[in-house]
Specification:
This protein is of the alpha/beta class. The chain is about 35% helix and about 15% strand. Strands 1-4-3-2-5-6 form a six-stranded mixed beta sheet, covered by helices on one side. A hairpin with a 5-residue loop joins strand 5 and strand 6. The radius of gyration is 19 Å and the shape is globular. The protein starts with a helix and ends with a helix.
Length: about 200
C-alpha cells in the first residue's frame, strides 16, 4: 500500500468514526442546520422563498381520503411527505411522520403522503396499500406513479418533507432523514400562530 493510499484510508476511517462529512458527497449533512444555531430560530423558509405550494396533480389513486387539492386545505398546516415504500430512508422516517400526524391532526395538521415510485414494483396500488397497513399509515396518501406532483414540487429526493402554512405557502422543506425536532417545532409554531 502506498503512503498516499494509507493516508486516504485513514482519513476516510476517521471521518466515518467521527461523523465528519466529505464535501460534495454528503450533501444532506451539508444542508443541515449549522452548529450553534439557536433552537428557537425563526421558521426556516424554503429555498423557494415562500412560493405557493403546487397542487397534487396526476394522482393515480388516493388512499385513506377522497382526492385532495391544496386549495381545499387552506387554513390548515400541511406536511407533504414524498416517499416510496421500497426506500429504506423513507421507511425510517415513517414512524416520525405518523407520530407527528397523531400528535397534531386534531389541532389542524394535515399530512399528505405522496408515494412516488422509484422502481416498477412500487407502482402497484395493492403493494402501496399493503405498505400503508404494515406501517400504520392512516393519513391521506396520493399515488403519484407518473411523478407529476413530484415534478410540480421540483422534488429530487426520497424522502422529502414540505411544510405548507395556512395561506398555502411552502415555509419549510427538508430532504432525507432527520430534522424531526425542527419539523415538529415548525408545525407547532404554525399551529400556535393560528390559535
Amino acid at each position: 500500500m502506498t503512503v498516499k493510499l494509507l493516508a486516504v484510508s485513514a482519513a476516510l476511517i476517521g471521518m466515518a468514526v467521527t461523523g465528519a462529512v466529505i464535501p460534495g458527497i454528503c450533501d444532506e449533512a451539508a444542508r443541515a442546520t449549522p452548529v450553534g444555531t439557536a433552537a428557537a430560530a425563526p421558521i426556516q423558509v424554503a429555498a423557494t422563498s415562500q412560493q405557493a405550494a403546487p397542487d397534487f396533480t396526476g394522482i393515480n389513486t388516493w388512499f385513506n381520503s377522497k382526492p385532495l387539492g391544496i386549495a381545499d386545505l387552506r387554513g390548515k398546516v400541511v406536511l407533504v411527505d414524498f416517499w416510496t415504500y421500497g426506500c429504506v430512508n423513507c421507511v425510517n422516517t415513517l414512524p416520525h411522520v405518523t407520530d407527528l400526524y397523531a400528535k397534531y391532526k386534531d389541532k389542524g395538521l394535515v399530512v399528505v403522503g405522496v408515494h412516488t415510485p422509484e422502481f416498477p414494483f412500487e407502482r402497484s396500488a395493492s403493494n402501496v396499500q399493503a405498505a400503508l397497513k404494515r406501517h400504520g399509515i392512516t393519513y391521506p396518501v396520493a399515488q403519484d406513479n407518473d411523478s407529476k406532483t413530484w415534478n410540480a414540487y421540483r422534488n429530487q429526493y426520497w424522502p422529502a418533507q414540505y411544510i405548507i402554512d395556512q395561506s398555502g405557502k411552502i415555509v419549510f422543506q427538508h430532504e432525507g432523514e432527520g430534522a424531526y425536532d425542527q419539523i415538529d417545532r415548525t408545525v407547532a409554531r404554525l399551529l400556535n400562530a393560528n390559535s
